[in-house]
Amino acid sequence: MENIALVVGSTGITGSNLARELVYQGWKTYGLARNPSNGTMGLLPVTADLLDEESLTAALDGISPTHVFFTTWMRNDTEEENIRINSALVRNLLNVLSPKKSVRHVALVTGLKHYLGPFEAYAKAGSLPETPLREDQPRLEYPNFYYAQEDAVYEASARDGFNWSIHRPHTVIGYAVGNLMNMGATLAVYASICKETGRKFIFPGSSEQWNGLCDVTDARILARQLVWAATTEGAENQAYNITNGDIFRWKWLWLQLAAYFQIEPEGFAGSARPLERELEHDQLLWEEIAQRHGLKESKLSKIASAWHTDLDLGRPIEVMTDMANSRKAGFTAYQSTLDSFTDLFDKLRQEKIIP
């Protein structure tokens, strides 16, 4: 039976890397987004607004996916609005697909805020979970749009009979421009500014992040787990943490990133020094850098999301994850974290995003 994938959020870090992996593996692959890109050879673009069921119905006319991969979300001012909007994104799509009776598996990508809490209560003192974060840890008491998205999948699964999988990456490192949460590109831009100006490459985060153990998730290994869970007997109907499989300390990795750019690093020095504050006056500087080097994007906010990098690196806890569920079921892929960053930096240079 032919596998037909619908990648929802196909222009983001997770969705675009997943689309490439599915096309590479020979799947017929549709990529749904508000402004889909045709940058992936073989990907079939679908333009639709997930908040408009009529738009979805028209866009998906004649498309009957066997596998749905949901990789997108919308940021709102409050968690209540996050819950309302982001659960609707999932529910609307699955409602539109329900009459087709074609869907066999739905995969939902969320993240470690499942364990750390939503933005409004993110990793706050007094509510810190025990690490490593394990897949069987209970939900927190805080309202959380990840839980609402999961519940929308569970409800549709009970109604329509498809299998599901939930995937919880740590910080995702991969190529995508204009993504809302992109630590890799943000650090590449910051390092490039440091190289151009002679500024020190200052670690923006907490002592716990600087000294503690950490892991991250390469978008490519996340893509491999998504496809694995969708096609492996016995892997269905489970939640999976997903990281590269190695651990590191930022006080080591920060020096490696500085060495790549040939700039001078500076580590934690008693308090956090947020990157958002460091970059807030650099728009004109970036325009000059972009013009001088012939870069594709001169708007700093389109390639750097300092607020999110500060959120991750400012946590008052070391964060690493346990991957027991997928390891026991046979998923053994591994990715070097240093290679995740340097591969991305090479790609950003090749694509003229950084000098």
From TrEMBL:
<keyword id="KW-0560">Oxidoreductase</keyword>
<feature type="domain" description="PRISE-like Rossmann-fold">
    <location>
        <begin position="66"/>
        <end position="355"/>
    </location>
</feature>
<dbReference type="GO" id="GO:0016491">
    <property type="term" value="F:oxidoreductase activity"/>
</dbReference>
<dbReference type="InterPro" id="IPR055222">
    <property type="entry name" value="PRISE-like_Rossmann-fold"/>
</dbReference>
<dbReference type="InterPro" id="IPR036291">
    <property type="entry name" value="NAD(P)-bd_dom_sf"/>
</dbReference>
<dbReference type="Pfam" id="PF22917">
    <property type="entry name" value="PRISE"/>
</dbReference>
<protein>
    <submittedName>
        <fullName>SDR family oxidoreductase</fullName>
        <ecNumber>1.1.1.-</ecNumber>
    </submittedName>
</protein>
